[in-house]
Amino acid sequence: MVQGSTIGRATPTVAARATSALPEMIKDAALFALVTLGLSIPVVAYRTDLGQGTGLGLTGRWGLVAGLCAAVFVLRLAQRLVLGEVSRRRDARTLAQAESTAPARLARPGRIIGPLTLGVALTLPLLAALGSGGLSEGRYWIDLGILILTYVMLGWGLNIVVGLAGLLDLGYVAFYAVGAYSYALLSTVFGLSFWVCLPLAGLFAAGFGVLLGFPVLRLRGDYLAIVTLAFGEIIRLVLINWVDFSGGSAGLSSIPRASFFGIPFTAGEGGFASVFGLAFNPMHRVVFLYYLILVLALVTNLVTLRMRRLPLGRAWEALREDEIACRSLGIDTTITKLSAFALGAMFAGFAGSFFAVRQGFVSPESFNFLESAIILAIVVLGGMGSQLGVAVAAIAMVGAPELLRNLGFLKAVFGEGFDPNEYRLLLFGLAMVAMMVWRPRGLISERTPSVRLGARAR
Amino acid sequence: MMQVTGLHATGLARLATLQDEPPAAMPGGPADPILVVDHLTMRFGGLTAVGDVSFKVGRGDITALIGPNGAGKTTVFNCITGFYKPTEGMIRLRQEGGETYLLERLPGHDVNRLARVARTFQNIRLFPQMTVLENLLVAMHKPLMRASAFSLAGILGLPGYRRAQEEAIAKAAAWIARIGLTHRADEPAGDLPYGDQRRLEIARAMCTEPVLLCLDEPAAGLNPRESADLNTLLRLIRDEFGTSVLLIEHDMSVVMQISDRIVVLDYGIKIADGTPDAIRNDTRVIAAYLGVDDEEVAAVEAEVGLTGTSA
Predict the structure, then answer these.
(1) Which of residues 156-175 of B touch A (CB under 8 A)?
(2) Per-residue confidence of chain A (458 residues) as pLDDT tens digits?
(3) Is residue B121, in this structure, part of any structural domain at all?
């Protein structure tokens, strides 16, 4: 009886709150519908059609307007109800968390998703071949895997600069371009092999990172973003206009393809297939490229994770948190910043030279601002500084648009003329807005301490 | 002492005439100074924030720098710790081994790295998202960086670096225990209560193994209990670690109890320098804090129940 009465006491208060909020919500939704009406009268209400004669005739579409208003009303109402519920639950959860041991629960998703993603990544060619009934048939999936992994690697590289050191870099693609052109030029002009060019491309890109770093040492935030943006454009414009050097906007073609540590992927004698006693299949090269980028990306990840535990990596994070405090602790902020720029740029250089060896063709087209924006979006969406978050965000950002191409069933819903691909950017934008509303600090915003005292004591 | 605590008023009008008088000649000062500030002047455009200030900080002493708001205390601090380059003057730091550094000539981070002067800030500057332990490890950047061979040995996980890291963690753990935060060592520093953040900032500065520790208002925003804890911590730093302390403070219960020597600034000029007892009875200091004409000082002293010397 006593328990029943407590529950009985608690329930009315919640119910009362909900009912008292409802008229207010309806009023709010009605206001939204009114604004929709105002907006749709000039835009939607009349359609101009070619009349029987020469002039244009107006066709009224008031039914559509009414439909829009009703839809906005309902959606707004639903949104308020859902958001109200979500925030109520969140309050309840934070209260519960404050009492119980929260960290253990928060760490769990990472423990499952991380190995799972890695497992899929390691076996993707096999999965693709089994799933689509043959290596050649699975090519689409392996190519998609290569594309995603390239962005994962770029995201991890940029994560060092933006996520750890807190230096907003909008021109990251410039280093990617430096890496790609380094390989393209070194291999076509000097005939150097990929394995010689790879470290050289990384070094060149790191050099450019330091070059960019010097003038922007004193800048932070918005100012830094603008200068790095300009730097990215400068590199692209130089590549377009210095025709003798880079081939201009035509780019550089017939770049030597990847070989298996010196053994070319050719059909004839001495090719990869004959050396290993396999039947020739052009897919061997694709699979090799897939594992190459996987290894490169994992090296990036490993180095970043290691760096976080080293004094330099901790200094990066400290720099992000408070530069003045860093200086008062005897940390040379110049070297710390430059090293972050250089290391981040180096990984972009590696990724760039991989890009060149995969495409066999580079042109300034591939290195425009949109690429920088996508890479930055991956880092921000993933959660600044979180390695797993960046990987998941890269899969979502690069993989999801590809997925849209294959949503054939939508045609059945919206009619034959519907092409989901055309709505790609719209959905993309909606997803971004939703992210920023529900997870403003990225998919994985929890920061894992680089070292723990508690674990040692136990 | 208690009376002076009562005089902690800050926004009172001060004597205009004090500016025009030359700084009073101070006898001697500490015999073995670790820091000598010599004719320090700092101008911002037309404003002279600090005008020709000279004082000494004794080795192994706790020296307090006090004065009403806007007296230029923090400016002096920023000059000493390399955040400002003084317009004129010399700041000489002599370590125990005899190495002498001219702090005004060192680049910002070398003041800590080479001359081993550490500081805290008026508005706490921790690394809020990093844990308590990480905050202290960042402070041991120099030895760890050397051990990790600028990250190369660290990346490869060589034993030399591991050992250095273990030592650093042990040292940090000892400091965390000293400030009583062992149970929260793995929590983000930004989540700590204000008083704990203050003590953590001091511990972090101490992890750089300074010979001189500069504290900018360490007791600001602390309750009396926390102030008492702070006194204990500062005495420990002086007695056990032999670190000289220079502190800016408004809380007279801290200043009078633990200072070996007090320097008083007003309008960017030094108006007094001496032991707490001498400062307590110094007419200029009383005038600066209370804002009266010289003739009225005696009356004011009588009013606050002070029976010291008169003007």
Answers:
(1) 157, 169, 172-173
(2) 344 444 444 444 444 444 457 788 888 888 988 988 888 888 878 877 776 767 777 778 888 888 888 888 888 888 888 887 777 777 777 666 555 444 444 445 567 777 888 888 888 888 888 887 777 778 888 899 999 999 999 999 999 999 999 899 999 999 999 999 999 999 999 988 888 899 999 999 999 999 988 888 788 778 888 999 999 999 999 999 999 888 888 888 888 888 888 788 877 777 788 788 787 888 888 889 999 999 999 999 999 998 988 999 999 999 999 999 999 999 998 999 999 999 999 999 999 999 999 988 999 988 988 889 889 988 988 887 788 889 988 988 888 777 777 666 666 666 667 676 677 677 777 877 888 788 878 877 778 888 888 755 44
(3) no
Q: Same domain for B281 and B249?
A: yes
In chain B, whose CA is at the least distance from the CA of A308? Answer: B155
Do A453 and B141 make contact, defined as CB atoms within 8 angstroms? Answer: no
Q: Half-sphere exposure (CA, 13 Å, Cβ side) for A315?
A: 27
A328 and B CB contact within 8 Å: yes
State the Cα angle at B116 between B110 and B117, rounded to 5°. Answer: 90
> pTM score, two decimals?
0.77
Distances (CA, A) of A63 to A10, A66, A75, B155: 45, 5, 18, 67
- Residue A329 is classified by DSSP as T
Judge if B224 and B168 occupy the same domain: no
Tell whether A294 is covered by a domain: yes
Q: Tell me how far apart the alpha carbons of residues B20 and B14 are, in angstroms, rounded to a whole number.
A: 13
Of B81, B141, B172, the CB nearest to A331: B141
Residue keyed to tokens 């909606």: A430
B137·A451 Cβ contact <8 A: yes
Tokens of A451: 């070292």
Q: Are residues A63 and A146 in the same domain?
A: no
CATH number of the CATH domain containing B249: 3.40.50.300
Given the cut 0.85, state whether the ipTM is greater than it: no
Q: Quick one: B101 and B241 in the same domain? A: yes
Number of domains in chain A: 2
Residues A336/A312, Cβ–Cβ less than 8 Å: yes
- Whole-angstrom distance, CA of residue A40 vs CA of residue A61: 10
Task: Please identify, among B181, B208, B235, the residue that sits at the C-terminal boundary of a domain.
Answer: B208
The answer to whether residue A103 is domain-embedded is no
The residue segments making up the domain with residue B147 are 126-208
Mutation to test the B interface, candidates A300, A305, A320, A453, most B Cβ within 10 Å: A453
CATH code, domain carrying A422:
1.10.3470
B168 contact partners, CB below 8 Å, separation of at least 6:
B137, B140, B143, B144
Q: How far is B300 from chain A (nearest CA, A)?
A: 42
Contact B81 A328 (CB under 8 A): yes
Task: Record the tokens describing residue A40, joined without a space.
Answer: 């749709």
Helices B159-178 & B194-206, crossing angle to 10 degrees?
A: 140
A453 vs B169: CB contact, 8 Å cut-off?
yes
Which of B166, B184, B208 is at the close of a domain?
B208
Q: How far is CA A57 from CA A45, A61, A334, in A?
A: 13, 13, 68
